[in-house]
Amino acid sequence: PHILLQYIGWREAGMRWVRLNPDSAYVRLLFHRAPRATDNPADARADCTNIVGMLEPEGLPDPLITAAAALELSDRTYYGNWVRDLKEVLGREAV
């Protein structure tokens, strides 16, 4: 319930961009494989009926998920790209 309350609170406070879980492109980057990560587009509607399906599955290491989120937000800020969902890691062509 606390995750849902925070998520709804951010949206109702007028946050321009809110995302639950990092984009799967960034999760794949850090895991070097395709884990069973949940890929929700930014600003997805969350409520009591769907929040459980929007959470990351148990067993994914929290430090890597947190790092993926930090990398995504850093890249989005640098590149000014705030689309709802990414197909690949931003700036990947320069790597």
Please, could you describe this protein's structure?
- This protein is mainly alpha-helical.
- Helix content is 43%, strand content 0%.
- It has helices at residues 2-12, 24-31, 51-54, 62-79.
- Helix 2 crosses helix 4.
- The longest helix has 18 residues, at 62-79.
- 15% of the residues are buried.
- Tally of helical segments: 4
Largest sheet: none
The Rg value, from CA coordinates, equals 13 Å
Strand content: under 5%
Element layout with pairings:
Blueprint: H1 2-12, H2 24-31, H3 51-54, H4 62-79
Keywords:
95 residues, mainly alpha, 4 helices, globular
Short overview:
This protein is mostly helical. Helices cover 43% and strands 0% of the residues. The chain has helices spanning 2-12, 24-31, 51-54, 62-79.
